[in-house]
Each structure stands twice: as structure tokens, then as C-alpha cells.
């Protein structure tokens, strides 16, 4: 994994509840982490975005209140797997996230 694109737009750690992580594997066209990161920041509310990788594999990390929208988008650009959605409020209370 080569380049990293990172955005942190919100200081409140729980403004966006779900820590959403996944991998996107190339389907037909090359992946571009900058294009993916720009799309996510323009279309979904959230913070702490990291989109890192190369033309074959991108790792996404994003805090949002609507993780299903991010997953739906990512599934349109490649095969998604290793999907983890954790509830950070539950985790901070010592509960299983």
C-alpha cells in the first residue's frame, strides 16, 4: 500500500458513531484512493477518513453514522471484504462493539 489520503473534520470523537473498515479489491478497472476518498467526503457525513492502497486494493477506514451507505458505494467499485463496523459508543462503555 502506497499513498494515504486522510481527513479529520470533526473533533467530537462520538459525533460519528460507527468505525467502518473494509477492503476493496479491484474488479474491472484500476482503483484510485484519491477518487474514492473524494467521493466519500463529498457524499457521506463522517470523519477520520483513511483511504490507502494502490490500483488493486484499497483499505477504507471511516467514522460515520450510516456505514451501510459507504458499504453500498464501495461495492459498486470493487469486491468488498474484511468488513468491520464497530459501535464506538458501546466500546467506550466497555461493551462489545
Structural summary, described in words:
By secondary structure, the protein is of the alpha+beta class. The protein is built from three helices and five strands; from the N terminus they run E-E-H-E-E-H-E-H. Strand 3 (47-53) and strand 4 (57-64) form a beta hairpin. It starts with a strand and ends in a 5-residue tail after the last helix. The model is unreliable at 5-10 (pLDDT under 50).
Question: Poorly predicted ranges (pLDDT <50, ≥5 residues)?
Answer: 5-10
Oligomer: single chain
Tally of individual helices: 3
How many angstroms does the end-to-end distance come to? 28 Å
Q: Can you summarize the main beta sheet?
A: 5 strands, antiparallel
Count the strands?
Answer: 5
Strand order of the largest sheet: 1-3-4-2-5
Radius of gyration: 13 Å
What is the gist of this entry?
The longest helix is centred in the middle third of the chain and has 11 residues. It contains three helices and five strands, in the order ββαββαβα.
What topology emerges from the helices and strands here?
Blueprint: E1 3-7, E2 18-26, H1 33-43, E3 47-53, E4 57-64, H2 67-77, E5 78-87, H3 88-92
Antiparallel strand pairs: 1-3, 2-4, 2-5, 3-4
